[in-house]
């Protein structure tokens, strides 16, 4: 320890040496600590500050829903909107899609991106807004569609016949079959990419 530091320590018990040759009094130390707290608070506030309204996902169709809710999304920061965990978009009558993991939903217009009809769902109605594979909604997802046999009585007598049919339909879509209980058809897709080489859209 330098002679200067030793001398100061003899007379100032609250002195802190941060590095060789630099000595702070207790008053200066408190000031530095307060500055650090203020800087940390400012940084945290910026992370928590709600994102601009045009960046928050939009959904107008009353028959559809999104999770987290629009209210919850509107309170998220840009950083949080870029990393929404376990996003789900659904239609009250036709089914839902869940994206496990983190999904970037900034600037998402649900009405223009996801469309449900009976037994089908289309994602990215406009190819010009389709992001690269792995970005936005163009990533692995679990699809659930509400599909019931026309003759439920017969289906309950031969459930395996209908399950195998849905399994084959899933394979034809280049997707992974998960389950079918005569009411809900569940399957997994790797992405929602489509092009001349990809065949029909994964619906």
UniProtKB/TrEMBL annotation:
One GO location term (cellular component): nuclear pore cytoplasmic filaments
Peptidase S59 domain sequence ranges: 61-192
Nucleus among keywords: yes
PROSITE patterns reported for this sequence: NUP_C
Family matches, as SUPFAM superfamilies: C-terminal autoproteolytic domain of nucleoporin nup98
Chain intervals for the UniProt region annotation (Disordered): 35-54
InterPro entries per UniProt: Nucleoporin_S59-like, Nup98_auto-Pept-S59_dom, Nup98_auto-Pept-S59_dom_sf
Descriptive protein name: Peptidase S59 domain-containing protein
């Amino acid at each position: 320890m330098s002679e200067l530091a030793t001398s100061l320590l003899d007379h100032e018990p609250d002195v802190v040496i941060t590095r060789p040759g630099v000595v702070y009094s207790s008053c200066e130390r408190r000031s530095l600590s307060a500055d650090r707290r203020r800087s940390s608070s400012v940084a945290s506030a910026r992370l928590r500050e709600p994102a601009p309204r045009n960046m928050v996902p939009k959904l107008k169709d009353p028959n559809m829903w999104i999770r987290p809710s629009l209210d919850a999304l509107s309170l998220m920061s840009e950083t949080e909107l870029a990393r929404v965990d376990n996003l789900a978009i659904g239609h009250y009558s036709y089914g839902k899609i869940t994206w496990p993991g983190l999904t970037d939903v900034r600037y998402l217009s649900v009405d223009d991106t996801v469309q449900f009809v009976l037994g089908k769902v289309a994602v990215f109605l406009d190819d010009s807004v389709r992001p690269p594979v792995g970005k936005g909604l163009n990533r692995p997802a679990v699809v659930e569609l509400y599909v019931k046999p026309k003759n439920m009585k017969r289906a309950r007598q031969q459930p395996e016949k209908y399950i195998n049919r849905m399994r084959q339909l899933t394979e034809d879509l280049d997707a992974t079959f998960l389950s079918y209980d005569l009411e809900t058809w569940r399957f997994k897709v790797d992405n929602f990419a489509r092009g001349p080489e990809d065949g029909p859209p994964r619906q």
